[in-house]
Amino acid sequence: MLLTPGVVDQCLADEPLPWLGGLRASEFLRDYWQKKPLLVRNAFPALGELLEPQELLELAETDDIESRLIIEAGKEPWELRQGPFHETTWRKLPKTGWTALVQAVDHYLPPLADLLDHFSFMPEWRIDDVMVSYAVPGGSVGAHYDQYDVFLIQGPGQRRWQLGDICDEQTPRIAHARLKLIADMPVRFDEVLGPGDLLYVPPGLAHHGVAVDECLTYSVGFRAPPLSHLLEQVIDQVLEQHGTRTLFADPGRSVPTHPAALQADDLASVQSLLLQWLADPALYARALAPYLSEAKYPDYEPEGEDCERDDLLAALDDGLDLLRDPASRWLWLPDSQTLWRNGEVVDVPAEVGAWLPRLLHGRRLPGAALREAPPAVLDWLADEISAGFWLPVDGSDGEAG
Length: 401
Ligand code: SIN
Ligand code: CO
What we know:
The protein is α+β, with helices and mostly antiparallel strands. Helices cover 25% and strands 23% of the residues.
């Protein structure tokens, strides 16, 4: 079972975390995060049994689920195919040397929300998804580096991971139209990971994972928005707020050195006027919340089922928990007490607002936490369930209830 009650609190209280090998979050963030790899044996033993290979391949056969297949000795070296795949695909493949990868498996598998809660030492907006790969013996995606941090966690089977050096655009690559594979990776680390073992790989670090036997590997992947995108949001917000009303003004002007020159002091005045706009601390939350809360798949529409307060109470009596819709991105702004989701601000009545920190504490809201909830909170949650933003799930193993 992946559900370890209290993991969010353990992260936030900076307690030693068994799944980080006993490191406290602050120690991990100081010494490893974005710096160097970390291997932890037996970090998540339950991942060995969470998902069967066949279930993953079925996800790769499903429309609207993002999946890939990489065959090392395919029609061309490192043949890359995009899903969805026909169910007969797999039996036509060789016995060795291929991998199927499915993105955002956390959107379909509620227990992975519990896995993600173990990473609550990072804000949710920095987390991208849980990708799961299935490989036959010898299967790999080739030696490569990623731009983003990743926690690789071994499910069933064994995978040999080799790590190299930090790479960049200058690192020599194998010629390939779409995969960025490294030509020659010096091996600085070489370990076989078994079920439940975890390997943190910082951005840019070359890695190569080859299946020893048939295996599943979970990748908790992070995202880091390009600064240029953040700037775009900020500028758009500034322009919306100020429009064209404010003009350049120069009441303290001095005599120019040359009438045809664009002078440094004029440029400095423009810079200082613009920086005044950018110095507004309230600007950034307003500008970035819609962007950072965009769903991973922007066309995503949740589907709910009609739920009234009494239905919710009955579900709670049955011991169900509520899972925040994992395919939606949730972003809470404590200063303005606003909740953003999938790019939009969520309408939260004042009485519910006071409960938000509790409701959003982890991805799973234990039914017991709602025992004292006032009717307004229950009504709001019932509406949210109807809209598909909270999912009633079994309180013991996270299966949909
Ligand atoms: C894999 O699961 O095969 C690849 C994961 C990665 O290298 O990031
Ligand atoms: Co990678």
